Amino acid sequence: MMHTIGEVAELLGISAHTLRYYEKEHIIMPLRDTSGDRRYTESHIKWLQFVIKLKETQMPIATIKKYASLFLEGEHTTLDRLNLLEEHRCSIQKQIQILNGVDEMLAHKIATYRTFIGK
Q1: Nearest one of 16, 22, 14, 21 to 4, comparing CA atoms
Q2: The pTM is what?
Q3: List of domains in the chain
Q4: I need a surface site. Which of 4, 8, 60, 85 has the fewest CB within 10 A?
């Protein structure tokens, strides 16, 4: 099944502008119908879901572009793609540690305030 840019934007909770930006940056290359309108396949949607998760975890657009470019180059780039994703995962794990530490500090501070005000 093929989807329009508006359908994909609504489905993924992003703007059509963002989809056009991803296309301009060669992160996604939608198909075009005979009228020149963008058409997205289920494969495009799955890829965009992955891109959105990478963005949500603070991967820079430049790195996402590099990953997309490597993918398009073919299977000989598999090791480079693996390394890129492993580096990002390491970064996410560091973020998790930081957030867990902040969460513990906030829990302690909140408990202190609650004790102080008798709540």
Answers
A1: 16
A2: 0.84
A3: 5-117 (1.10.1660.10)
A4: 60
